[in-house]
Design goal:
single chain, 330 residues, two-stranded antiparallel ribbon, 14 strands, 32% helix, 19% strand, globular, binds S-adenosylmethionine
Length: 330
């Protein structure tokens, strides 16, 4: 079991399998991004070794993310090999966060390998708006992907980043749609990660305000549920669906943080909002045995900071860290 300096057990790792994405969401990336040379990326075999080392150290949940995890070539072979840890019972959950563009193709296979839940990022149900937010996304493909996931038996959670003046008139509609489809919904505050083309202060919408607004229309019953992530949940009386709120700015939940993130080049970030990192690629490549790798992981965990200090306001209108979410893995 890995325990950090603040007595938190680390049982969850989020692994970015690529920094590339087929979308260019305005709050996430600049339109012209420079991606890492492919040779710097960990191979799928190395990613499997890395994830397995975490499982050996007590990790119970792995989330594959990116960039867009499903655009990584042969990604299903990694999902397939990691599935052995589900079958052995050492891993409780293997899941992924996706923009949904490739789900139509992969949903059945994901289910076959033991994946039971996926988070799909969808900020709007309006096709024109979807185009404006994602720049390169195709709404109909995402909708087909979400439908395929549902058909395959995957439990779908929709992640919606709350953006002032962009989609803040759509929460009721999204709640209704998710309720009808049987999907959970999580709203996320926009975080100051990496330079983008626009101004984040203009898009930032505190979810404390949104919750108060929603409570006037919907019956929100607080739930004790934790899914191992940072969301706090409420049941929506009228739809029966679950609403999660991820509020790293208005209220951070760092005291219960149970996770670390690894980039596609094998850098481990102990906190999404801090610069400190631990290089896992060198020890991974230095020896075929896992001892050096385990040691590097444990040394990193021993430096896990207490929390992040995200602020978005006029005086702090710059990224908290230089890395985009697509690098650290959202
Ligand atoms: N491509 C996948 C997807 O779209 O879900 C996985 C990676 S994406 C970076 C993961 C999540 O991070 C998405 O839900 C996205 O909306 C969110 N995200 C990206 N940049 C963000 C930011 N600056 N603040 C809050 N959420 C962000």
């Amino acid at each position: 079991m890995m325990i950090d300096p603040f007595e938190r057990a680390i049982t969850y790792v989020r692994v970015s399998v690529t920094d590339r994405c087929d979308f260019r969401c305005v709050y996430c990336m600049a339109e012209n991004m420079t991606f890492l040379p492919k040779k710097d990326l960990l191979s799928l075999e190395e990613l499997d070794r890395l994830c397995s080392a975490f499982v050996d150290l007590g990790v119970r949940k792995i989330r594959l993310t990116g960039g867009e995890p499903l655009v990584r070539r042969n990604i299903m072979s990694l999902v397939g090999t990691l599935g052995r840890h589900l079958r052995s019972g050492r891993l409780e959950e293997l899941t992924l966060t996706t923009n949904g563009s490739q789900l139509d193709r992969y949903a059945d296979e994901l289910y076959g390998h033991g994946v039971r839940r996926v988070n799909v990022s969808l900020d709007t149900l309006d096709p024109a708006r979807f185009q404006a937010i994602t720049r390169w996304g195709r709404y109909d493909r995402v909708m087909a992907g979400i439908a395929a996931a549902k058909r395959a038996g995957l439990h779908v959670k929709i992640n919606m980043v709350a953006l002032k003046g962009v989609n803040d008139d759509e929460f009721d509609r999204m709640i209704t749609w998710c309720g009808a489809e049987g999907f959970d919904l999580t709203l996320i505050e926009t975080m100051p990660l990496g330079d983008i083309d626009g101004d984040r202060t203009e898009q930032y919408l505190p979810l404390s305000m949104v919750r108060a607004r929603l409570a006037r229309r919907w019956t929100l019953i607080d739930l004790p549920d934790r899914t191992g992530g940072p969301a706090r949940y409420a049941r929506i009386g009228e739809t029966g669906g679950r609403l999660g709120l991820i509020t790293p700015l208005t209220h951070n939940f760092c005291e219960s943080c149970n996770r670390v993130r690894v980039t596609c080049t094998g850098q481990m970030y102990m906190c999404l909002g801090q610069e400190d990192e631990a290089d896992l690629r060198r020890p991974l490549r230095a020896s075929e045995a896992d001892e050096l790798l385990r040691q590097a992981i444990l040394e990193g965990i021993a430096r896990k900071p207490k929390g992040h200090d995200f602020v978005i306001d006029r005086r702090h209108n710059r990224p908290a860290v230089k890395r985009h979410m697509s690098v650290t893995g959202g």
